[in-house]
Amino acid sequence: MGLKKVYTLNACGEKPAVARRGSLWEALGLPLKDHMVICFTGGGGKTTTMFSLADELAAMGKRVIVTTSTHIFYPENREVVLADRAETVKDYLKDRKEWYSGRTGQILVTGQTALHGKLKGMAPQEMDQLSCFSDVLLVEADGAKRLPLKIPREGEPVLLKGTHGVIGCAGLDAIGSLWEETCFRWELAEAVFGWKTEKELITPDQAARILVSAQGTRKGAESMDYRILLNKADNENRLSDGIRVMECLGEEWAGRCVMTSFFAS
């Protein structure tokens, strides 16, 4: 997974700064619920973030199932059960006594085989049932073609009915970059936000607007616990960009925003 660093905004003092946090779960500040469902939306490092959070939860003794409602790359060095129905996962876990022992945390990945070395999700009504077999169900609920920012189209993201929390992700490498090179579905920006984006650079304010908008990364999560995660805070320049995005989010959302670096230089 590489070297992980987690930051939140430190509001103390005249000049905004970031504070290092001990874990991603601590920084997110989500209330832990029984059979909790957490979905990841947006762009910029959702899969890496999801598995990092799964590892932390397992270290806390939690049973974690990881899946997707879109596609993810088949994870290496993870326990995977190929299934298109929740019942298949249930049957698989019957033979895993350690899963129900409660002595150690566990992680299981599930989905169906897809093209190009990927896993795809099972039907939403089947995925809904997976939370019954786990303490926490983590779902990658959005696709962005590995780009750091995304504007969702109609029907996106695919959030499960029982979702408790949503983590909206973006990569800080989008800031100061061309829309057409770093934002998935960038052509929707004019219709959704009224912005002229062709051959223009993405600003911190625009990234912040997308992240908190009910027509952007927060789409479908308006009634859920929502957190913002800025990935690729890998150096001082990226950290500075992250602070600028946090300032543009405003006080309400800046306190629910986390920055991460999984491959710090």
SSE inventory with pairings:
Blueprint: E1 5-10, E2 17-21, H1 24-28, E3 36-42, H2 46-59, E4 63-68, E5 71-73, E6 80-82, H3 86-94, H4 97-101, E7 106-114, E8 118-120, H5 124-130, E9 136-140, E10 149-150, E11 165-171, H6 179-182, E12 183-184, H7 189-193, H8 204-212, E13 225-231, H9 236-249, H10 251-254, E14 257-261
Parallel strand pairs: 3-9, 3-11, 4-7, 4-9, 6-7, 10-12, 11-13, 13-14
Antiparallel strand pairs: 1-2, 1-14, 5-8, 7-8
Task: Explain what you see.
- The protein is of the alpha/beta class.
- The chain has one domain (5-261): Rossmann fold (3-Layer(aba) Sandwich).
- The protein has helices spanning 24-28, 46-59, 86-94, 97-101, 124-130, 179-182, 189-193, 204-212, 236-249, 251-254, and strands spanning 5-10, 17-21, 36-42, 63-68, 71-73, 80-82, 106-114, 118-120, 136-140, 149-150, 165-171, 183-184, 225-231, 257-261.
- Strands 1, 2, 3, 4, 5, 6, 7, 8, 9, 11, 13 and 14 form a 12-stranded mixed beta sheet that branches. A two-stranded parallel sheet has the order 10-12.
- The radius of gyration is 18 Å and the shape is globular.
- The two termini are 14 Å apart.
